Amino acid sequence: MYSSVEVQGETVINPHIDLPQGTLDLLILRTLVLEPQHGWAISERVQQISSDVLRIQQGSLYPALHRLERRGWIKATWGTSENNRRAKYYELTRSGMKQLEVETESWRKLTLAVAQILESV
Amino acid sequence: MFNDLRIRLRSFFRKAAAEAELKDELRFHLDNEAEKYKRTGMADEEAKRCARLAFGGEEQVKQDCRDARGTRMAETVIQDIRYALRSMRKNPGFFAIAALTLALGIGSSIAVFSLVNAILLKPLPYPNAGQVVMIWRQGPLAGIGDMPFSPGEYCILARSETVFQNLGAFKKDSFNLTGVSDPELLEGVRVTAGFFPTLGVAPALGRTFTEEEDHAGRELVVVLSNRLWRTRFGADPGIVGKTVHLNGSSYSVIGVMPPNFLFPNQEGIPPILDLPRETQLWVPLALPANPRGANELGVIGQLRTGVSLTGVEQDLENFEAVRERQIPQEKNWSSHAVPLMRQTASDARLPLLLLLGAVSVVLLIACANVAGLTLNRSLGRRRELTLRGALGAVRSRIVQQLMTESLILAFIGGGLGILLAELSLLMVKHFASGAIPHLHETGLDLRVITFAVGVTLATGLLFGLAPAMGATRMNMVEALKAGGQRSGGSATAPKMRNALIIVQVAMAMVLVIAAGLLVRTFYSMLRADAGFDATRVVTFELPLPTPKYADTARMADLYLQVLLRLQSIPSVRGAGFASVVPMGGAPDGTVIRMPEHPSANSSEKPFANYAFISPGYFAAIAAPLLRGRDINDADTLNAVPVTIINAAMARKFFPGEDPIGKQVGVGMTRIPVRIIVGVVADTKQASLREQPDPEMFVPATQNEIKVWPSMQTMQFAVRTRIDDASIAESVRQAVHTVDPDLPVAKFSTLTTLVNTSMTADRFSVILVGALGMLALILASVGMYGVISYSVLQRMPEIGLRMALGAKRSQVFAMILRNGGRLAIAGVTIGLIAALAATRLMARFLFGVQPTDPFTFAVVSFLLILVALLASYLPARRAMKLDPMIILRYE
């Protein structure tokens, strides 16, 4: 999961982690639990909270948002941003809330299992 | 789910708005990001660059977003449709031929299906139609078929415990309507009180019969048909309660039926019931408590809800057991029930199934044809398809695109097909009105349209899928390498094309043979010895009202008086009357006894038709007397009882001996036997294709049984010397001089009757013939297309051959041989298939074997000829090629 870069013959640990497949949806849903937000804010927030460890290719956020919207887990409305511009805000729907619970639960199980394997050796 | 659809639809239909929003959203993100960098002190340009870098490829993101919203599918379909329409414009010849071919195939299927729909699938216009059955009896005598009930048997059935909720009986009767204007003979039925409740039909005006009115003394009430009410009574809304004069008695009108209620009539019901062609009125049957009489009642029953036909069978068995106790002389009879829907359609069912088979063959030929065309075209487009493959188009994507073209083609063909179907239905209605029940009800309804769409889709898939798969199955590298050359096409493609042609020829062969057999049948019917000569013969019916002419002697006397008058008309060459003239209906039949030939076992009692005739009748219809003498005026009640038998009866019961002077009588031994004095040629009674039954003819003046057969109605035949336009009027005058109240019914020329009897056969011949012609045309067009294409493909080879010294005639022969080989393969397969298929047609044929070698030979020859003709043009084109030009072109 660590991406390593060859620098002059030695391997250094890159401070950023690429997102594992499928986790982006979970992060987006989690970010929207508190309040409706626009795309940029979501990407900023994910990076802030994860102390810049998780690196999201910002562009990949939007297809994910549109996909979630189509599935009905989030819903979009146009509002006005802090700097007084028209921005598209996303908020969690009821079925999105349920989906978040489901995905959090399965994520917990997964990490727990992986952690156990890693520690048992 | 709903959300999904909403977003898909929005991104599809409000594409511009969705695009603008997407752009705004991304712009907002990039601006914010750039702003963030600027706050760290970056220069404006640098900040924007960093923001774009962090974001990734903007166009790629947009495309991913579009995909995420699910517009892709719809867009590619639109793209494919646009592309297909463009290529149609570029190649109008191909599409015109293909669309026309499909239109012919689909159109004829729709036309035939709407006939099937109207005749076999539509419910009858009676509310209870689904639950009503018709009940028939079958006796131990083989070959007589379904028998109606006698009044006594019906009463036993009506009194037994059954699953029938309602039960009704009916029989034909004629009514002489007087007092309105000219006397007119109306055809009606006498029915029991249960008749209308069984069918569940409510009258349009007034009411139907009550239980009380179904008894002697109360029965002078009548229900009119809608048509009679309109034509004879001016649609008088106050008709209910008025009085009409029928057969000299006063009946009060109690109701008028709705326009579509015509039951019972001849549609699908065997002639043994002798129903009216169109029932004009209904009168109570009023059976007495212990009725007697012949088997002449039609019986219908309405099943209780939830009861199946098997439940009925049990009841009918019980009924027969009870009946056998009460009427022990009738042994081994059984009864069975037929759903009314099936009963009234049974006559029309078989020709329709034949048509359905024929039309599916045409549709398959059309599909094979268009598949061949499409295959040629897609092979011509190999380079284009290969290039698209090389540029990254997935195979499924190319197949999808080719299929879109095929489906569009199919729908254009289907649309044209519906128009064609409507047109041909108009023609069918014109040619076959009256031959087929419910014909006027055909038309486009939901079921027909569903069928049309289904057939169109299926054909699109059928002719589109194989070529699409075939054309895209290719080795990209090989194809690109070969791409520079004009020749091309994999080894499987010509095989597939040839197979398609062989199949088409074989199917056309089967259909044309079927049509040929029907044409032969029709001609054998026309040429068959009908036993009479219809030229300048007119016929009519003379029914006598009951009260005035009660006993048979008076009836016979009246008929003879009318006959004398007819014979004295100057233009008349001969006249006579009989119970039934040829084509005039079904004669009565009876068990007979022949003292010189006692039948060995009782279960095979001899049976013969039994009819009254007048002197001169056979001369009038020109039926040749083969032996003995005609009857004459001396054959009276006091003289020796005599009879004339037909040739079929002589053959069957007096084989190898002279029947003249032999004795024959009806089954009842108290009636004395008759002496056979003559043998007359067989005359066809109901249809030209029938095998005449044994029949005996008895002088109308020697009716000693009196109660049977009825002499209430006689049919006259009058032959004139010249074409006499005023014969109808002369006949009417002759009748009215004898009794001015007598109606002259069913006046017609015998030729018309013969033609009418052939309507259904004419209908089959014309339709199957037309379909066969269509198949022939389609197959030859297909053959032409394939041969021309192969010439086009083999151009380099042909050029080379010619350059190396091949003569033009050799090239010509080579191409022609190519077509001939395909045709012979198709004809061979077609012959084998036809041998199997025509056996199923045996029922439709007359005077020709299903494997008639003449038809088979002529049609084989015809198909090979047509195939050579179709190859002629391309062969000629190949011959005229200039080898220099071809080789230079290469």
Strand order of the largest sheet of chain A: 1-2-4
Measured between the Cα atoms of the first and last residue of chain B, the distance is: 59 Å
Biggest sheet strand order of chain B reads: 2-3-8-5-7-6
What characterizes the major β-sheet of chain B?
6 strands, mixed, barrel
Shape of chain B: elongated
Radius of gyration of chain B: 38 Å
Instruction: Label the structural class of chain A.
Output: alpha+beta
Helical percent range of chain B?
A: 40-55%
Share of residues in strands of chain B: 5-15%
- Given helix and strand content, the structural type of chain B is alpha+beta
The tally of helices of chain A reads 4
Oligomer: heterodimer
CATH homologous group name of one domain in chain A: Winged helix-like DNA-binding domain superfamily/Winged helix DNA-binding domain
Largest sheet of chain A: 3 strands, mixed
Q: How many beta-strand segments of chain B? A: 21
User: Uncertain segments of chain B of ≥5 residues (pLDDT<50)?
Assistant: 483-489
Report the helical percentage of chain A. Answer: 40-55%
CATH architecture grouping of one domain in chain A: Orthogonal Bundle
Regarding CATH, which class of one domain in chain A?
Mainly Alpha
Summarize the structure.
Chain A has helices spanning 23-31, 39-49, 58-71, 94-120; strands at 2-7, 10-18, 37-38, 54-55, 74-80, 86-92. With 121 residues, chain A is of the alpha+beta class. Chain B starts with a helix and ends with a helix.
Tags for this model:
heterodimer; A: 121 residues; alpha+beta; Arc Repressor Mutant, subunit A; 3-stranded mixed β-sheet; 3-stranded antiparallel β-sheet; 4 helices; 27% strand; disordered N terminus; B: 890 residues; 4 domains; 6-stranded mixed β-barrel; 6-stranded mixed barrel; 26 helices; 52% helix
